């Protein structure tokens, strides 16, 4: 199988596009990170002041949540399956856009190079002639 065939087979698969989409999403979020950190640092003293009260409120909520957990867990599991499928499809679509945008003619070039490349042939041993005595 040629390299071009293998590359084409890979780039036509949904998992390939999903991975490309996830990578693009990660880059997008990493670019937002400095701004998010700056916002949190500016609110640091405010958050520290409110922390004890927030901890009491969340402790009360945690108690009631623990009682309802088994029933809610089933519902969350059902929602999660649907959301995971949706996210996979979204990442595959996003990846397809990213790959087609960034690859341009690169795939065609790779195919041309692959077709033009000839398989390596082993070097032949030179014939030795025996000296006649």
Automatic annotation (TrEMBL):
Basic residues biased stretches: 124-133
Region (Disordered): 110-133
Protein's recorded name: Tfp pilus assembly protein PilV
